[in-house]
Amino acid sequence: MASTETTEDLEATIEIAAPPATVWSLVADPTRAREWSPQVLRTFVRGRPVQQGTTFLNLNHRGPLVWPTTAKVTTFDPHVRFAFRVTENRTTWSFTLAPTADGGTRLTNRRETAEGISGLSLVMTRVALGGVDTFTDELRAGMRETLAKIKAAAEASA
User: Fold this and answer.
1) Which domains does the chain have, with CATH numbers?
2) Transmembrane stretches, by residue range (predicted)?
3) What global pTM score does this model have?
């Protein structure tokens, strides 16, 4: 089921007092997503090491509702950018790392919808997740929470 309806791209950024290599080790391992994201219950990676082309399965949740998504790593540029495309809704999620003048990292988390969001995903969002606007607001809040947790972990290990 395809749709030409799109939703806006989402972006959140945080400054982290840890070098890009430290931050990279956290964001480029999909199995750690459950530590950061309030939506991810578990991630199963197919094959190791993670690299461009690696696929994985996420189990996501919102309260008692649980749903799977599959994804493929589309960009694996160490210490710079990690991105993956979710098959079911056609979104691309990424972490972009930029060194700061003080030796830290500016980490940006993005959700891009260049191809729009699949019709099936839009219907499910409307029916089970309170609508596109409500769910988008939850995603924004989740991105901020994710970045705050990555920051805390990176700074604790730096």
Assistant:
1) 10-28+76-157 (3.30.530.20)
2) none
3) 0.92
